[in-house]
Write a structure and sequence with these properties.
Layout lengths: L1 H24 L5 E2 L1 H18 L5 E5 L5 E5 L1 E5 L3 E7 L13 E9 L6 E5 L5 E2 L15 H14 L1 H4 L3 E7 L3 H5 L9 E2 L10 E2 L4 H17 L4 E5 L2 H10 L8 E3 L4 H11 L3 E6 L1 H8 L14 H10 L4 H9 L3 H10 L3 H19 L5 E7 L5 E6 L6
Parallel strand pairs: 7-9, 12-13, 12-14, 14-15
Antiparallel strand pairs: 1-11, 2-3, 4-5, 5-6, 6-9, 8-10, 15-16
């Protein structure tokens, strides 16, 4: 019996170790940006023009100075034109452009020797609004990947550029459909995806990329002359506020996720005067307690604060203690709904959010809070200066 127990313990330890290894491995594999894959394809196509054959494998210099080899497919070459495709591998990042065929056509140009001209083709978005740092009417190829594409072409195409120019056209078959899963339309990028990347590497669930998209969204609103931004914490709250505020321009709505700090810092920098925050109980509680990065893995919800708000609007001592002892903000919401004080409770919570943020950002902008439940139903609308509770 003792030996059996020992064996079971040993087996359980082995199983747990394997599970931990799996957990650590899951979601950690890095990938490559659309910009890097475009640069690799451009380098391969340029080599094709130089040698008469596009290679099946090419080394690419990344913006972060790493050198990485990429497989090249669907190759073609004649005297003045070469074609190459690199299939994007996003690693473990849930990116809608994973497996996208980053396609490059390179052509020799006469009369402009030494120039590298980069264009956008099918599936690459077109810029229609100011505020992105790119020319309106031009392709959605950001500055860093554009420079990196040109650098890779120049590294292998020196002999060609001595007498010719080189035109590089980036295409992404299927890119327009992919773009519908991104924020491109809201940013004024139509017809396809963006060619992106600052380091060349995609990190799984990249918080930096999301943070940058929040900043960029507010910049676009400001460049359109909007004086209001509506910050939401996720897809459900975004649908809710769009329904509540139909007269606002699409550019006003920015899904900030957990990045309240970066959103409000950008609001101040861009001179936005009116901020509307759409949220549900969990994220709003984080804001009320002073958290400006509201991710669940950060500080826990302050249930004592929720109990205090519940007491303020008339909840019994017993219910307030239940809320204080609970683990989640949602529990507080459910208890207050049971006793018919949900509207008063959310009004108090909204006021606390405004109070906390106004103390952090005095006189910079005014704030309104719109509150919804988990089904997107409106529970409260709280204005700055409202003394309802």
């Amino acid at each position: 019996m003792t030996n059996n127990v020992a064996n079971n313990v040993a087996n359980n330890v082995t199983i747990n170790v394997e599970i931990e290894k799996t957990k650590k491995k899951k979601g950690t594999r890095t990938g490559f940006t659309t910009g890097t894959c475009s640069a690799a394809a451009a380098r391969a196509a340029t080599l094709g023009l130089l040698h008469g054959k596009v290679p099946d494998d090419v080394e690419c210099l990344l913006p972060n100075a790493q050198r990485v080899h990429f497989s090249v497919t669907d190759t073609y070459c004649d005297k003045n034109h070469a074609h190459a495709v690199v299939i994007k591998d996003a690693g473990d990042d849930p990116d809608c452009t994973d497996k996208a065929p980053l396609t490059v056509d390179v052509r020799l140009l006469t009369g402009c020797k030494g120039e590298v001209i980069i264009k956008g083709g099918e599936g690459v978005g077109t810029i229609t609004m100011a505020g992105l740092g790119l020319k309106v009417g031009g392709p959605a190829i950001n500055a860093t990947p554009s420079k990196n594409i040109e650098k890779n072409v120049r590294l292998v195409g020196k002999k060609l550029l001595a007498d010719n120019g080189i035109e590089v056209t980036i295409s992404v078959p299927g890119g327009e459909a992919m773009s519908k899963k991104t924020l491109n339309a809201r940013l004024g990028i139509i017809g396809g995806i963006s060619i992106l990347g600052t380091t060349g590497i995609v990190h799984p669930y990249s918080t930096a990329a999301f943070r940058d998209s929040v900043i960029q969204g507010i910049q676009v609103a400001a460049n359109q002359g909007q004086d209001t931004v509506v910050l939401t914490t996720g897809g459900r709250t975004e649908k809710f506020v769009i329904k509540e505020l139909p007269k606002l321009a699409q550019a006003c709505f920015v899904q900030m996720g957990d990045f309240l700090k970066y959103a409000l810092d950008t609001v101040i920098k861009e001179g936005i005067k009116h901020v509307i925050i759409g949220g549900m109980v969990g994220k709003l509680t984080k804001m009320a307690q002073g958290e400006t990065i509201t991710h669940a893995r950060r500080n826990t919800v302050n249930t004592a604060l929720l109990a205090e708000l519940a007491e303020r609007v008339g909840a019994s001592a017993e219910i307030c203690q239940d809320i204080r002892d609970a683990e989640t903000a949602r529990y507080a919401s459910e208890r207050m709904e049971e006793i018919g004080l949900i509207s008063e409770f959310y009004h108090a919570l909204g006021n606390k959010v405004i109070e906390t943020l106004s103390a952090r950002y005095p006189i910079e902008f005014d704030i309104k809070v719109l509150v919804c439940d988990f089904d997107g139903n409106k529970l409260g609308e709280i204005m700055q200066g409202d003394k309802y509770v």
